[in-house]
Amino acid sequence: MKVISIGNSVMDYYQDRKIMYPGGNALNVAVLSKRYGAKKSSYVGILGNDHEGSHIEKALEKEGVDTSRIRKVEGATGKVKIKLDEGGDREFVEWKKGVQELVKMQFTSEDLKYILSHSHLHTSVYSYLDNEIPELSNDISISFDFSTYRKKEYLRSICPYIDFAFFSGSDLSLAACENLIEYVHKLKTKYVVVTRGEHAAILSDSYKIYKQPVTKGEVVDTLGAGDSFISMLLVQFYKTRDLKLAMKMATEAATKTCANNGTFGYGFSVS
Predict the structure, then answer these.
(1) 141-145: strand order across its sheet
(2) Global pTM?
(3) Beta-carbon count within 10 A of 231 CB
(4) Pairing between strand 120-124 and 164-168?
(5) For the chain, how many structural domains are there in total?
(6) Which domain holds residue 204?
(7) Measured between alpha carbons, how far is 150 from 139 in angstroms, rounded to an integer?
(8) CATH number of the CATH domain containing 66
(9) Does pLDDT of 108 surpass 90?
């Protein structure tokens, strides 16, 4: 599998510990997909020309992620201020988008050729790639993380063009999850996944429902657990085409991530 992740990258700032870690859905999936066995993993996104941007780029390079198409822009890299409760659940206190709010990626013909040299593209609701997805979907499989965003108008603009839809649904009842899955399938998305916090994750391929209970383990920090789940599921699915196995391994990967601070490490102290 050759995966390319396009979109958001930030520094996650844990204000109680005064430590920053690289993060952001697209960035996390790029790193974790490589760790989990992807033949190639690439990241395309916008970084500021500050210390944080350089730190993210160096972390990607150390993890073997291709950074050749990263854009560096004058200004600050995005930052998310995070607070953890006693159980390790994260609360987003503040999000400063930085340069990603100031400029938008424009793809050249060479960029498009590079993107299509991969077998799968992952992006998210935070990546500002919505307008490009219809065209890209003609030539590459796409997964999209909607997080908790479920407005029908938005779903109708994205779901007809993607292969995997991921949702965070810890606030939804089982019936609401099933209704969401049914609606997204009607929009022609083949695989729909809803993670549900401490409850079993659900995957549907429109023919069968797969439910995977959460693997028990130590919970230090839940940040990045969903991205671990997505990364492992995609890598294992494209390797084995076994959805049941992919769900099991994805859940185990998410549990392991919860036992660590930061999604994939590379933290540094902030005075």
Answers:
(1) 40-44, 2-6, 120-124, 141-145, 164-168, 191-196, 199-204, 209-212
(2) 0.96
(3) 32
(4) unpaired
(5) 1
(6) 2-269
(7) 26
(8) 3.40.1190.20
(9) yes
Report percent pLDDT > 70 for the chain. Answer: 99
Between the CA atoms of 195, 200, 202 and 207, what dihedral angle is there, to the nearest 10 degrees?
180
Predicted confidence (pLDDT) per residue in 232-270, tens digit: 999 999 999 999 999 999 999 999 999 998 999 999 999
**Across residues 93-110, what is the average pLDDT?**
90
- Residue 223 · residue 87 · CB < 8 Å: no
